[in-house]
Amino acid sequence: MEDKNTIFKEFDRHLMEDKEPSHYFNEILGxxxxxxxxxxxxxxxxxxxxxxxxxxxxxxxxxxxxxVVDNAAEKKEVxxxxxxxxxxxxxxxxxxxxxxxxxxxxxxxxxxxxHGERIAxxxxxxxxxxxxxxxxxxxxxxxxxxxxxxxxxxxxxDIEKMLSQISVDEVALLTLCDRLGRGEMTEERHAxxxxxxxxxxxxxxxxRKH
Length: 210
Hints:
Protein name: HDIG domain-containing protein
Distance between the termini: 55 Å
CATH class: Mainly Alpha
Keywords: Nucleotide-binding
Pfam family, one: HD
Number of domains: 1
Domain HD: 62-146
């Protein structure tokens, strides 16, 4: 069995170099070669985590994550920190495993962003001592739902705390990849998602001025 450091470097290489990293991850999964060693097992477990068909017609959290990773690979050149950005794309929904529940006939994953921050941090601490990198990835995971909360003026929005931890432009970029990684995307929906992200950035940056 390969050691954790070797696997981490291999994952890292595909995240940073592949046009569509999902091909590699789905290939090793399909061949039964996905690393059966913690913390990588946390990713494979996402294949069994369902999502709301209404919001995620693509299926499991794993399928969604693969779409997000490919979107992120396409956009990473405009990221301020491409390395942290790509790992955040891969780990952004780790919190859905412990939070996904069936409530009144609906599949929900409340607070998966908060739980995900802790799990992503624990995941990376197994693999690297780069605290700055771990902090950035964890912060992106923590705040990847803020665009929804801010645009809809929900009580879960916390712009001040988010801005103290991470760049709003980085959160916006990850969130756009997250929103686009959902089943079939029409041009109209694509434009709507981009407009929502612009609103989120505008509200957040204006908040900073007050």
